[in-house]
Amino acid sequence: MKTFSLLLLLALISCGPVKIKDFNDDYTQELVGSVETITIQKHEYKFLKKDTINLVTTSFLNYDKGNKLISEKHQTANGSRETFFKYQEDLLIQKQIISKNDTSSIVYKYDKERNVTEEIATNKNGIYNVKTVVFDKYHNPIELHNQFKEKIKQSVFIDYDYKRKSFLSKSVLDTIATLEIVTKNDFNKRGFITKRQRIASSSNAKYYSYEFDKKGNLTSKIYHKGDGTIIEIITFKNTYDKVGNIISRERYLVNKMIDKTTYHITYY
Questions:
Q1: What is the pTM of this model?
Q2: Are 53 and 44 in contact, with CB atoms under 8 Å apart?
């Protein structure tokens, strides 16, 4: 009977609402071990230009013994930018960005549940953006509002259907005219977005689907027509060190490498 109760509890937990993973460029796993520094180099392979290779960015990242990022420096052909991170009780409270022409700062505020509810960005001319976020009881954002200095407003409203593992995201941009974009997103039991489709007047809208490995790394990004026909496939290949961290990440389009990112990691 105890075994049955335990299995039922585990089933309920596994089927419950999850924290949706934020999606920017691609998903990669959390760091393993006690990392001190990472030097990241990203190369692009222009196979349309006789396979020329370009070093796009070099980044230098420094961590404390708890794997919190302390500082990072990004270098490109156009210059460099350095960022410093300040924490309080393990929460990021300030980020300072220094470049050749400007110094800016972002201050973060939290609610009692440790959700970031406000971000205030300033530069030498004062406040240039204020972002506020409202969360549901599962720590997922349901409203995001950006107020830019130039009176540009952006709002995002998110409606979750946890039972069906999907959510609708409506983005409203208010400039000279109002632009509204609605997307439908599906996610898996770990909170990773597996499908993203813009809701258009046509019911045959194109969409992206995403696949992941057991560590939570994005392995493929597939572009489909509305009927499911594949238009384009982007795949990723990772190489790991002995600790289990990624030291090389390659991206392919039609089985041709289009960029490669290497990670030189030192540990405490």
A1: 0.85
A2: yes
